[in-house]
Amino acid sequence: MNHVDGKFWINRWENNEIGFHRDKPNYFLTKYFSELNLAESPKVLVPLCGKSLDMLWLTDVGCQVIGCELSNLACQQFYSENYLQYTLTETDKFVQYTGDDISIYCGDFFAVTGEDLGKIDFCYDRAALVALPRQLRINYAKKIAELLPTGSRYLLEIKTYQCNSEIGPPFSVSKSEVKELFTNYFSITFLEEQSEMIQPDSNIRAHGAVELTNTACLLIRN
Ligand SMILES: C[S@@+](CC[C@H](N)C(=O)[O-])C[C@H]1O[C@@H](n2cnc3c(N)ncnc32)[C@H](O)[C@@H]1O
Question: Which BP terms does GO give this entry (predicted)?
Answer without folding.
Answer: methylation; response to metal ion
